[in-house]
Specification:
Layout lengths: L2 E8 L8 E6 L12 H5 L7 H10 L6 E5 L9 H10 L3 E6 L4 H7 L5 E5 L7 H5 L5 H14 L3 E7 L6 H10 L5 E6 L18 H11 L5 E4 L1
Parallel strand pairs: 2-3, 3-4, 4-5, 5-6, 6-7, 7-8
Antiparallel strand pairs: 1-2
Helix pairs in contact: 4-6
Cofactor: [4Fe-4S] cluster
Organism: Hydrogenobacter sp
Protein name: Anaerobic ribonucleoside-triphosphate reductase activating protein
Length: 225
């Protein structure tokens, strides 16, 4: 596991659970608004996996879950073994993913307690938004797999106004129609992979809330965060 960051406690990233976050390095996308450029580019200082395991062993009974985020965790070769080691200690595991590697998600799905998948754009706009080669059939496969087999899950989209129109967001709603939970995530321009995106904007609070209401025609729950 190429681990580039670790947060020892969070009440936000795993819904209703006390958790920690492991950040993996490397990603197969290059979303310009990404707030973790050092993880995407692999320039963060590497943290030994055994250091994380040791921390988790000591925190048994105090922490409930472990969030594995990134970067993109599913490009890590030993992700499955890492998840198994965490599960063997009695932790719940949440995976954050871009959904571009459904074969990995399929191998892990019965081990995972929660999956959060970023749906970046309507399928026809994917490569424009992620600035990388994207096989949208794999995105569709991951959506289907998560909706059918995940114990619990959410889909989410970071909303940059210049990239995604209101119509685009409704198209994403159609793509995940019937899903349990969908989040519109406010774009924060403080730190971005593409420095020019520090000047970009998100929708107003009122616009986001109205969009969430409209998206409830497609999904069971839709929230702004």
């Amino acid at each position: 596991m190429n681990i580039g960051g670790f947060q020892s406690f969070t009440l936000i990233d795993y819904p209703n659970k006390m958790a920690c976050i492991v950040f993996t390095q490397g990603c197969d996308f290059r979303c310009p608004y990404c707030q973790n450029p050092e993880l995407v580019l692999g320039t963060a200082k590497s943290i030994p996996q055994e250091e994380i395991i040791s921390f988790l062993w000591k925190r048994r009974g105090m922490l409930e879950g472990v969030v594995i985020s990134g970067g993109e965790p599913t490009i890590q070769r030993d992700l499955e073994d890492f998840v198994k080691r965490i599960k063997d200690m009695g932790y719940l595991v949440k995976l954050d993913t871009n959904g571009h590697n459904p074969h990995v998600i399929q191998r892990l799905i019965d081990l995972l307690d929660y999956v959060a998948m970023d749906v970046k754009a309507p399928l026809y706009k994917y490569e424009e938004v992620v600035r990388a080669k994207a096989d949208v059939k794999r995105i569709e496969e991951s959506i289907r797999l998560i909706m059918e087999r995940a114990k619990d899950y959410e889909f989410r989209t970071t909303v940059v106004k210049e990239l995604l129109s209101e119509e685009n967001l409704l198209q994403i709603g159609g793509l995940i129609k019937g899903a349990k939970r969908y989040y519109l995530q406010r774009f924060n321009p403080r730190k971005t992979l593409d420095p020019s995106y520090r000047q970009k904007t998100t929708y107003t609070e009122e616009e986001l809330k109205n969009l969430a209401l409209r998206l409830k025609e497609y999904v069971k729950e839709c929230y702004v965060r």
